[in-house]
Amino acid sequence: MGKYIIIGLKVVLAVILAGTLFVQLFMIPMILIHESPSNGTDKFFQAAFLGYLILAGLVIETCVYSVWKLATRVKRGTVFDPASLGYVTPIIVAFAVGALATFALGTIFAASTDIAPGVVLLVGGAGLLMIGISIIVLVLRQLLAQAAMTEAQAAELRTELGGVI
């Protein structure tokens, strides 16, 4: 990848991180301060949704950190090192946890008669999307592992060829 693509990616990641932190540190507390549901059921749904937002922020922050580190490794030319796999695994786990949390939120919403069934269906679809992303990243992790192994074998062959010459 080119230098400008890496810089562009890091700018986008920084904006995403700033937006996520803004929601977690300012928006959620403002909602808690200014919105007080009248009955216990509404309080439960509000708490579930705000808890989900906090967890979603952690998922996003984990992915941003991992992609940032991988982009740095790409820039340095060390992405095909087995150590890079340590930055891919948290992305897989984060999306899996996010999917479970999304399904839990959908289940909580489904128990209510106030939440439209279409909303529950959309939340379930978002959970399925997260599972799909997690599986795609898992496949890409396997490809990265194969590329790292091939790179190591190529380096070994270069060393042996250098000894022969």
UniProtKB/TrEMBL annotation:
InterPro entries: DUF2975. The chain crosses the membrane at residues 12-32, 44-67, 87-109, 115-140. Coiled coil: none annotated. Keywords: Membrane, Transmembrane, Transmembrane helix. This is DUF2975 family protein. It comes from Glutamicibacter mysorens.
